Amino acid sequence: MNMLRRYTARVALSGMTVAAIVAATAYGGDTAAQAVPAAAPSQALTEAMDQVVKSGYAGVQVVIDGPGGHRTMTAGVGDLQTGTPFADDARVRIGSNTKTFVATVVLQLVAEDEIQLDTPIEQYLPGLVQGNGNDGNRVTVRQLLQHTSGIPDYLGRVGGRAASGDAQLDPISEAIRRQHFEPADLVRRAMAMPPINERGARAEYTNTNYIILGMLIEKVTGQSPAVEINRRIIEPLGLRATYFPADGETGIRGPHPSGYHQTGGKRIDVTATDTSWSGAAGAMVSTASEVNQFFSALLAGELLPAAQLAEMQRTVPFDREPDAGYGLGLIHRPVPCGKEVWGHGGSIPGFEVRTGVAADGTAVVVSANQLPTGREAFAAVEKVFDIAICGA
After folding, report:
1. Residue-wise over 224-242: b if at least 16 C-beta within 10 A, else e?
2. β-strand partners of 120
3. How far apart are CA 373 and CA 262, in angstroms?
4. Quick check: 26 pLDDT over 60?
5. Which of 284, 336, 344, 279 shows the shortest CA–CA distance to 315?
6. What angle do CA 17, 80, 49 make, to 5 degrees?
7. How many other CB atoms are there within 10 angstroms of residue 103's CB atom?
8. Which residues are registered as beta bridge partners of 243?
9. Which one, 61, 91, 111, 303, has the greatest CB density within 10 A?
10. Pick from 239, 255, 211, 280: which is nearest to 86 by CA?
11. What's the pTM?
12. What average pLDDT does this structure show over 162-178?
């Protein structure tokens, strides 16, 4: 178990509020934690964070944990009305980073011989994946985890419907953000469309896969994925700010920035959202520090046996990031300095969250309280992550 001691000081750099926090981490037993002075942010990192704001984001936070200590840095604002920055312990919607939590539970159940990776999903959830060419007899648990199932996405692009069908939901729609969905409702929407490709042909990222995996967890354990994630991951790691929203819960507990979406030339506040439409594919809330703790523990072998972690790290080419590899709920992410980096990432209306842990133990989360408005904005966040993980 990681016991983190923090010693906090504040400084201002390059027009942004920076919280420099010295941290130490002790693993097990009575070993005393030794405080490691956190290095000052580099000029390259502060300039890159300022560029994120200039590219159109309301604000950005970077949290770095590892051999160099613990650092928290912010640029821009967490709330446009008050002008306040991200709080050091800000809670954010972590979007598809939820998928790694779900995949971890599924692989724990594989280790317990409750689930078989190469068994068709039809054997666990009969009749769920059927219709319009979709066939659960031909889709395995592994293919769901790795997005090689060919199952269509029930979600369309943010702000408008994708070309694949009217069954898709627009997650920025006010009506959708206020509506409650059951997982089976979301899967039925996907089944109204034909497969997006032949199963196993390539990895094409589809949120439906993880909605089905959440239903699989519930079928095998008798408990919701939220309960199992809490029991198997959150409680053992001592994560106090990480949670699945309760049914009907639209706010974010604890200190948090407002989440914005830019549409029609103006920003709208989309913080209050019923995220049942994202469910096991992306509904969780956490802090950057706790996300770093989760990914670090996972990659250190604290949550899975070696055999299942190795399966998680077997990758295929990934449609969303051509240079990256997608494993079983885990992304092998290329960075300019050549470090070995594993993580995920999440995009949900109001929040963009990049995550990764390098082989040297450096863990980074970059959180913005808005989705990118274009390629330039997307690249600006990528650059911040690359600089932070590479230590430049």
Report:
1. bbbebbbebbbeebebebb
2. 140
3. 7
4. no
5. 344
6. 40
7. 26
8. 285
9. 61
10. 255
11. 0.89
12. 79
| Res 39: pLDDT | 54
What pLDDT does residue 56 have? 94
Side-chain half-sphere CA neighbours of 101 within 13 A:
38
Indicate which residue of 96, 276, 278, 347 is catalytic: 96
User: Which residue has 């408005």 as its token pair?
Assistant: 373
Q: Given a cut of 70, is residue 125 above it in pLDDT?
A: yes
Confidence bin at 361 (pLDDT 50/70/90): very high
Distance CA 255, CA 73 (A): 16
Tokens 């290329």 map to which residue? 334
Residues in contact with 314: Cβ distance below 8 Å, sequence separation at least 6, in sequence order = 327, 328
Query: What is the rounded distance in angstroms from the CA atom of residue 327 to the CA atom of residue 343?
Result: 10
Look at residue 137 and give its three-state secondary structure: helix
Active site annotation includes 367? no
Tell the residue number behind the tokens 């920076």, with chain if given: 18
Q: Are 145 and 328 in contact (CB under 8 A)?
A: yes
**Looking at the predicted structure, is the pLDDT value of residue 11 above 50?**
no
Residues 43-98 have pLDDT tens digits of 999 999 999 999 999 999 999 999 989 999 999 999 999 999 999 999 999 999 99
C-alpha span between 218 and 225 (Å, rounded): 6
* pLDDT at residue 240 tops 90: yes
Query: Which has the closest alpha carbon to 303: 364, 358, 205, 228?
Result: 228
Q: Are 342 and 361 in contact (CB under 8 A)?
A: no
pLDDT the model gives residue 6? 25
112 has pLDDT over 80: yes
The 10s digit of each residue's pLDDT in 297-319 is: 999 999 999 999 999 999 999 88
DSSP assignment letter at 123? G
H helices of the chain, in order, are 43-54, 98-111, 141-145, 174-177, 183-191, 207-221, 225-229, 235-237, 279-282, 288-299, 306-312, 375-390
Q: Which residues contact 26 (CB under 8 A, 6 or more apart)?
A: 2, 3, 32, 33
C-alpha R_g of the chain: 20
